[in-house]
Design a protein that fits this description.
heterodimer, A: about 525 residues, mainly alpha, 17 helices, disordered N terminus, B: about 190 residues, alpha+beta, 2 domains, 5-stranded mixed beta sheet, 2 helices, about 25% helix, elongated
């Protein structure tokens, strides 16, 4: 019996249950990918709502809508919902949908574990939301006013909502570690015969690096929050100076996870761009090998520069110099990726459909965010910018284009493949322009606010900051509500529209475009023959 | 490639990755002791290093006209039923001159309890220039039930204190010693 038949059996274990069983017991990578994406979309709206509440409060100086603890709770909640609830599951959803199609595999390597790693998420999401809601009930304790970094000693002192949060982080961590193991096993063992690692589509490479990063750093965060839990309830003193511990140790544990996490959010979107730009420039990706090298370099160096988030804790000159130089060095491989994208577009026959519009905007705005990142990496400058709105502006300029817009671009790019219908191109373009305008209106003024000295994570501000904050808040409302249009476009495309061809985009290359749109429930039961030009 | 080889390869990858996950979880905890070692090598400061204040000789120190603000701060570990606070929170001092301040301690419980104070100085760059001649933190302190004492600290700031440091904070963390060891141990966990 050939292995094709063995895998064929594996894929048919469940006789395609229908109704709710189809989703709850699903072992099909396409269904699980869809679930991931829907979960991420839900969380995007919840995280967006908390962000808009924050901006509504900051519209005017003084305290109007929220009280300080609730404000800080919203800041914490917004960050965690967006990072763990929206961006990571959305990227995992794209991985689930696309990786088996791209490498010619019938499904993920471990379909049941795939089911588990998704279905942990709704439980984790519920815990996360409970951690926000619990303080509103009698006996619920104080609000989580620490921000997403959860620094002790404050995080040891807040009420029981912190315990919900700690367990939510444990669950989210288990989910992403399982998903990462699954993705690595799939990529290393399930490629179509003849496809070498260096012939894999670049999106698969980005996910291979991302999954390894997750496996290396998420357990360290899990360890850190476990110590926090022990300090809170079991009388240990890992972070309590009065018992011989050190609160700064938590910062190291947190940022050992937190900095590579930034690349976890960024890399899948870089992978999406590496498919979109060649498609719409109608040229192969410039410098495939250098992209792979750059990615591995970013991942490796990114693991050892975490303390640039902590310049102000009083490290020695030698230590801060090392972290400064390491951080600035990362801009070299990242710059290489950007130049590769530009070189791909150079003299290409470009057209500007919605995914390409996002791609071009991402290159511009992400570069901008990267440059303000280099400013922040410089120690003497950072002493000034630390904990100011400048930092907020910087990381939204890297995370929004670098992660979220990349995922939007990917959704527009692959939505016709998933649903079999073309999305409304006119509405897509309108969404792009409103979205990007709103984004820049929100976050560009925050650079000036930060440089002028407005601190972050504080509910009130000096009246001298009023104008820029008002502009920023108006932008945030435009930006926030524009996502209703995204929701409408997605629903409209799912329900119907112009039928999409198999190739969907005239310039699209790769195995995923060889299957029908929408793809049948089972694809690549017979592995495809790899010819050189399909993967280049 | 047949199916058995494929399954075996898959299984091997899964095991290796699971070991990596467990290893990294352990690494997080290994960082607790490693952190101190790392701090000593690289100069990233940690509490246990900062607390290593010096006992210096007061001779040959010249007084200088600078006025340095020194603030006193205390925190008590929840397992120690004591009140502990400085009699004076702020003091203006001249470098090179000897001062004495008192810290008031009271045992709230009715049992005899032994505690140990651990000092730390902020900014840490000033640590070497704060010389303690007599300090309750050199020894364990034992208080009988309901007993109150004033614990003295005699200190001097060295005139070699860098010019840019105009104020510093001396902070004491007090914790319980369960079965008091013969020697004061700086990193004893509560």
């Amino acid at each position: 019996m050939s292995y094709t038949n063995a895998l064929h059996d594996e894929a048919h274990h469940h006789d395609n249950p229908t109704g709710w069983r189809r989703w709850l017991f699903s072992t099909n990578h396409k269904d699980i990918g869809t679930l991931y994406l829907l979960f991420a979309l839900t969380m995007l709206f919840m995280g967006g709502a908390s962000a808009m509440l924050i901006r509504a409060e900051l519209f005017q100086p003084g305290i109007q809508l929220l009280d300080p603890d609730l404000y800080n709770n919203l800041v914490t909640n917004h960050a965690l919902l967006m990072i763990f609830g929206a961006v990571m599951p959305a990227a995992a959803g794209l991985a689930n949908w696309m990786i088996p199609l791209m490498i010619g595999a019938p499904d993920m390597a471990l379909p049941r574990m795939n089911n588990l790693s998704f279905w942990i998420l709704p439980a984790a999401g519920t815990m996360l939301i409970l951690s926000f809601v619990v303080p509103f009930f009698p006996g619920g304790g104080s609000q989580i006013n620490t921000g997403w970094t959860l620094y002790p000693p404050l995080s040891v002192q807040v009420g029981m909502s912190m315990d919900f949060l700690i367990f939510a982080i444990h669950l989210l961590g288990i989910s992403s570690v399982l998903a990462s193991i699954n993705i690595i096993v799939t990529l290393l063992n399930m490629r179509a015969p003849g496809m070498t690692l260096m012939q894999m589509p670049i999106f698969c490479w980005t996910w291979l690096v991302t999954a390894f990063l997750l496996i290396l750093v998420v357990p360290v965060l899990a360890g850190g929050v476990t110590m926090l839990l022990f300090d809170r309830h079991f009388g240990t003193s890992f972070f309590d100076a009065a018992g011989g511990g050190d609160p700064v140790l938590f910062q190291h544990l947190f940022w050992f996870f937190g900095h590579p996490e930034v690349y976890v959010l960024l890399l899948p979107s870089i992978g999406v761009l590496s498919h979109i730009i060649p498609t719409f420039a109608r040229k192969p990706l410039f410098g495939y090998k250098s992209m792979v090298g750059a990615m591995i370099a970013v991942g490796t160096i990114g693991m050892v520069v975490w303390a640039h988030h902590q310049y102000t804790i009083g490290m020695s000159l030698g230590a801060v110099s090392y972290f400064m130089i390491g951080t600035i060095i990362i801009s070299i491989p990242v710059g290489l990726m950007i130049f590769n994208f530009i070189a791909t577009m150079w003299r290409g026959a470009m057209t500007f459909e919605t995914p390409m519009l996002f791609a071009v905007a991402i290159i511009l705005m992400f570069t901008f965010g990267g440059l303000s990142g280099v400013m922040l990496a410089v120690v003497p400058a950072d002493m000034q910018y630390h904990d100011s709105m400048f930092v907020v502006a910087h990381f939204h300029y890297v995370l929004m284009p670098g992660a979220v817009f990349g995922l939007f671009a990917g959704v527009f790019y692959w939505l016709p493949k998933w649903t079999g219908h073309m999305y409304d191109e006119r509405l897509g373009k309108i969404f792009f322009w409103i979205n990007v305008t709103g984004f820049n209106l929100t976050f560009f003024p925050q650079h000036f606010l930060g440089l002028a000295g407005m601190p972050r994570r504080i509910i009130d501000y000096n009246v001298m900051f009023t104008e820029f904050n008002a502009i920023s808040s108006v932008g945030a409302m435009i930006f926030g509500f524009s996502h209703l249009l995204l929701l409408y476009i997605i629903i409209k495309t799912i329900r119907g529209g112009e039928p999409a061809t198999n190739r969907v985009w005239e310039g699209a290359k790769g195995l995923e475009w060889e299957v029908a749109s929408p793809p049948p429930f089972h694809t690549w039961e017979t592995p495809p023959l790899i010819r050189q030009e399909q993967t280049s | 490639m047949n199916s058995e080889v494929r399954v075996r390869n898959k299984r091997r990858t899964i095991w290796l990755l699971s070991l990596l996950v467990l290893g990294m979880f352990g690494f997080g905890f290994a960082l607790v002791p490693l952190y101190d070692v790392l701090c000593q090598i690289t100069g990233i400061q940690s509490v246990s290093l900062r607390s290593a204040g010096e006992i210096a000789n007061p001779a040959s120190e010249q007084e200088d006209s600078r006025l340095i603000t020194i603030k006193f701060d205390t925190s008590v570990h929840p397992n120690l039923p004591w009140d502990f606070s400085p009699v004076e929170r702020n003091l203006q001092v001249h470098p090179g001159k000897l001062y004495q301040v008192d810290f008031a301690a009271r045992n709230r419980s009715s049992e005899t309890v032994t505690g140990q104070a651990i000092p730390s100085v902020a900014p840490w760059q000033a640590t070497a220039f704060l010389n303690k001649l007599e300090c309750f933190c050199f020894n364990q302190q034992t208080l009988a039930g309901r007993q109150s004492v004033d614990m003295p600290l005699r200190f001097m700031i060295s005139p070699e204190l860098p010019q840019e440091i105009r104020s510093l904070t001396l902070s004491y963390s007090l914790m319980k010693l369960e079965n008091a060891p013969p020697e004061p141990n700086k990193r004893e966990k509560g």
